[in-house]
Structure formats: structure tokens, C-alpha cells
């Protein structure tokens, strides 16, 4: 069975500082990988996805993620965060028509 | 909002009563999903559909059933609601097996 582990439940970071949200997955076969963002009281929104090809994937709002097959990781990064990035971020893996989500990482932006 | 409407948005009901949640999409996406979101668990897949009358179970399907008689509608039914089913329910649609768009959620409380 495949699973997704988000290593940090909460990440505090100062405004304009860089941030990395970590995600590891377990699977012995090829998978698709995703990051979603959930703003307070809203549904999820797709940030970016890795299907194949380049291991560095760029998404919306200045986020990017790097697929590392050897480390089975798909960490999300942003070089400079803004207060509007305050949200919960979910990593997800897809295989055989099923999408499995991690438990989420809350990003707190400090002034 | 990518044309996804969930109804109702809020519901309070009693243990043992039947409950049906509706998801309506206007994008003609083949895939539709029902998730529940609970603190500390992230999003967990209840059921999904890959076409009209084609559905399959997710990781937490016990106590839930679904139906999809038209492309645009995906219904989630709790035959006899229990307090453990108190949650926020999200519908999503997608192309292939990738949830792209989420509804705004239904907050269900079972007393």
C-alpha cells in the first residue's frame, strides 16, 4: 500500500523568508504527485503536480517542488513567503485511480 | 470555483437518520470524488466515480454509499448516521485520476 507522510504538522516562518514543506511517499511503482493548498474555510486548490519529465515542477503563487525518486520525496518550496500564504498544505500521491493525501502542514507566517 | 456546488453547506442531524449530500459539477469531468476531512487525519477518500454508474470504494467507505446516475451529479449517502461521521465533506472532480477542483465543503454534525 502506498502512503504519504508530511513530516511537519506546523511550520512557522517569517515573512519574506524561504520555506520548505516536506513530503515523503512510499510506493514501489511510478506515481503521480501533487501539492494542494487549503485557505481557511475553503476547499482545496491544486498548487502543482508531477506526472513525468522534469523533476522540478513550478506551480502557482511562486511555489515549486522537486521530485526525488531515490529519496521518495516531493518537497514544496517558496523562496520568499507572504502573509497571504498562510494556509494548510497537503501533499498527495495518485496511483490506480486513487488519490491518497498526507495529513497536512499548517504554514504560519510571522510578521 | 470550477463549477462545483455542494449541497447542503451545513447540516445538523440526529444519530440513526439517513443523510444525503449532493455534489453537482458543470465541467463534465469524468472523475468525481468524496472525501472527509478530520483534524489530524487530513483528507480521506470515501468513494470515487470514474463514470456514470461506475464507482469504487476508498479507504473509509464503511457506512457510506454513493450513486452517480448522471455525469454532473455524485451523491453521498449515510444510510444511518453515526456520531463518528461528523466531519467536513469535500467533493472533487478531476481529469484522469487527478482531483483538480474541490467544492467548498459540507459541514455535517451528527448529534
Describe the 3D structure.
The complex is a heterodimer of chains A (about 110) and B (about 110). Chain A has about 110 residues and is an all-beta fold. Chain A has strands spanning about 5, 10-15, 20, 25, 30-40, 45-50, 55-60, 65-70, 75-80, 85-95, 100, 105-110. In chain A, strands 2, 5, 6, 10, 11 and 12 form a six-stranded mixed β-sheet that branches. A four-stranded antiparallel β-sheet of chain A has the order 3-9-8-7, with no helix packed on it. Chain A has a two-stranded antiparallel ribbon with strand order 1-4. The N and C termini of chain A lie far apart (about 40 Å). The relative contact order of chain A is 0.33. The model of chain A has no long low-confidence stretch (mean pLDDT about 90). Chain B is an all-beta fold. Helix content of chain B is about 0%, strand content about 60%. Chain B has no helices and eleven strands. Chain B has strands at about 5, 10-15, 20-25, 30-40, 40-50, 55, 65-70, 75-80, 85-95, 100, 105-110. In chain B, strands 2, 4, 5, 6, 9, 10 and 11 form a seven-stranded mixed β-sheet that branches. Chain B has a four-stranded antiparallel β-sheet with strand order 1-3-8-7, with no helix packed on it. In chain B, β4 and β5 form a beta hairpin. Classes of the chains: A mainly beta (about 110), B mainly beta (about 110).
Q: What are the segments of chain A in which pLDDT stays under 50 over at least 5 consecutive residues?
A: none
| Largest β sheet strand count, sense and barrel closure of chain A | 6 strands, mixed
Overall shape of chain B: globular
- Our Rg estimate of chain A from Cα atoms comes to 13 Å
Low-pLDDT runs of chain B: none
**Extended strand count of chain A:** 12
Helix/strand/pairing class of chain A, anyone? Answer: mainly beta
Radius of gyration of chain B: 13 Å
What percent of the residues of chain B sit in helical stretches (DSSP H or I)?
under 10%
Q: Give helix and strand order of chain B, one letter per element, not per position.
A: EEEEEEEEEEE
Largest sheet of chain B: 7 strands, mixed
Number of helical stretches of at least 4 residues of chain A: 0
- How many distinct beta strands of chain B? 11
Work out the strand percent of chain B: over 45%
**Overall pLDDT confidence of chain B:** 93
| Amino- and carboxy-terminal Cα gap of chain B | 31 Å
* Proportion in helices of chain A: under 10%
Amino acid at each position: 500500500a502506498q502512503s504519504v507522510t508530511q513530516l511537519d504538522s506546523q511550520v512557522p516562518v517569517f515573512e519574506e523568508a524561504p520555506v520548505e514543506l516536506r513530503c515523503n511517499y512510499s510506493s514501489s511503482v511510478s506515481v503521480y504527485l501533487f501539492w494542494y493548498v487549503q485557505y481557511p474555510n475553503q476547499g482545496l486548490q491544486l498548487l502543482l503536480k508531477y506526472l513525468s519529465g522534469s523533476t522540478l515542477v513550478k506551480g502557482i503563487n511562486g511555489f515549486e517542488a522537486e521530485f526525488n525518486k531515490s529519496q521518495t520525496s516531493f518537497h514544496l518550496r517558496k523562496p520568499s513567503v507572504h502573509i497571504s500564504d498562510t494556509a494548510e498544505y497537503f501533499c498527495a500521491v495518485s496511483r490506480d485511480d486513487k488519490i491518497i493525501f498526507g495529513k497536512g502542514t499548517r504554514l504560519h507566517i510571522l510578521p | 470555483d470550477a463549477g462545483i456546488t455542494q449541497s447542503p453547506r451545513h447540516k445538523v442531524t440526529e444519530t440513526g437518520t439517513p443523510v444525503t449530500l449532493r455534489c453537482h459539477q458543470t465541467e463534465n469531468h469524468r472523475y468525481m470524488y468524496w472525501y472527509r476531512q478530520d483534524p489530524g487525519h487530513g483528507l480521506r477518500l470515501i468513494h470515487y466515480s470514474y463514470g456514470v454508474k461506475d464507482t469504487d470504494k476508498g479507504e473509509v467507505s464503511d457506512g457510506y454509499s454513493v450513486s452517480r446516475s448522471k455525469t454532473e451529479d455524485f451523491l453521498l449517502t449515510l444510510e444511518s448516521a453515526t456520531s463518528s461521521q461528523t466531519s467536513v465533506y469535500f467533493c472533487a472532480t478531476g481529469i484522469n485520476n487527478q482531483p483538480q477542483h474541490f467544492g467548498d465543503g459540507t459541514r455535517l454534525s451528527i448529534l
